[in-house]
Design brief:
binds ligand C2E, about 300 residues, binds magnesium ion, disordered N terminus, 11 helices, eight-stranded mixed beta barrel
């Protein structure tokens, strides 16, 4: 099958031949995505997004090397009391020209370019460094790290974590590793053995954004994991009965597999109360605290009792 793509190139947006080629590529991709045999006109929105993506990509390696990307922390609470029980480390990058660059923008690019290895290494090292101050203030709080599932290939994640564990008196006790459900390229046996080895370092394993995408329940049952994090789309959609039913089903599944559950993205009292009513015990979301710099979380009270909805 053949397809054709027409690109309207506006010379005033393009700074170089390279830009023109990238714009043409964007039009081509967009034409492919919406089906073959299409004429697709490149619009200003597509060009702005492409230009930003190219800039983010070109600045990423330097940003990693110079430590411009570092962790912020978001509290996780016990729903019934508001007690802080843990923190999740989330990567943050502020660039002079681009402003805030979200991890949703730069993590996929880092995965494509191979920069995910040095990026993850640097972030993990910083979190371990910060963990001493966090533990001094919140002695029993867990600290969660996000990892790209890609790093499971070639045991790169295990190598990174083993190295970090060797630097700490109690290994990685109290750390949680969050990985998203994906169609893992490893065999179930290989995946299970790597996760077991990671757990041997003291790390507990959580499945992030649970329910959002591909999910093999048979694989879930065979994976050595301790926790599910319910994707925030379900939390946000709990005004609708069908989403309440999904959350309730995930909680039942977790209970039968003896897994802990955290509901992500809690923004208001209605969501909090619905989750408590369903028997969910842990939550995270703007209702309690946004991701913050290390110094800010160290000033948080041990219990977060929100007074008003975040949105
Ligand atoms: P995630 O791990 O599921 O993290 C939760 C995301 O939800 C964070 O977005 C957080 O800021 C946001 N969030 C928390 N509470 C609320 C809420 O109440 N409402 C709404 N609307 N959002 C809320 P963030 O920091 O932009 O991160 C996006 C994703 O990027 C993360 O999703 C994670 O998958 C990835 N990511 C972040 N940091 C890293 C990292 O260091 N390494 C890797 N591999 N991925 C990371
Ligand atoms: Mg996460
Ligand atoms: Mg998540």
């Amino acid at each position: 099958a053949t397809f054709s793509a027409g690109a309207a190139l506006f010379p005033n947006h393009a700074q170089s031949i390279n830009d023109l080629l990238i714009y043409a590529d964007t039009a081509l991709l967009s034409a492919k995505e919406s089906g073959r045999n299409q004429i697709k006109w490149l619009n200003a929105k597509m060009m702005t997004a492409t230009t930003r993506k190219t800039k983010v990509d070109s600045k990423l390696a330097v940003a990693i090397r110079e430590g411009q990307i570092f962790p912020h922390y978001q509290a996780e609470v016990e729903l019934s009391t508001g007690k802080i029980i843990g923190f999740e480390a989330l990567a943050r990058w502020h660039d002079q020209e681009l402003g805030m660059v979200s991890p949703a923008e730069f993590i996929p690019l880092a995965e494509q370019s191979g920069a995910i290895d040095p990026l993850t290494e640097r972030l993990f090292a910083q979190v371990v460094k910060d963990s001493h101050a966090i533990r001094a203030r919140f002695p029993n709080a867990t600290i969660a790290l996000n990892s790209s599932p890609q790093l499971l290939t070639g045991k790169r994640l295990l190598t990174m974590l083993s190295h970090l564990a060797s630097e700490l008196e109690n290994g990685l006790d109290g750390f949680v590793l969050e990985i998203t459900e994906t169609d893992f390229s490893l065999s179930p046996q290989e995946l299970a053995s790597q996760l077991q080895a990671i757990m041997g370092l003291g790390v507990r394993i959580a499945i992030d954004d649970f329910g959002k995408s591909y999910s093999s329940l048979s694989r879930l049952a065979s994976m050595p994991i301790q926790k599910l994090k319910i994707d925030m789309s379900f939390t946000a959609g709990m005004e609708r009965e069908e989403n309440v039913k999904i959350v309730s089903a995930i909680l039942a599944l977790a209970q039968s597999l003896s897994l802990e559950v955290t509901a992500e993205g809690v923004e208001n009292r209605f969501q909090q109360d619905t989750l408590i009513g369903l028997g969910c015990q842990q939550a995270q979301g703007y209702f309690y605290a946004k991701p913050m710099q290390l110094q800010e979380i160290l000033t948080l009270a041990p219990h977060l009792i929100p007074e008003k909805d975040a949105c």
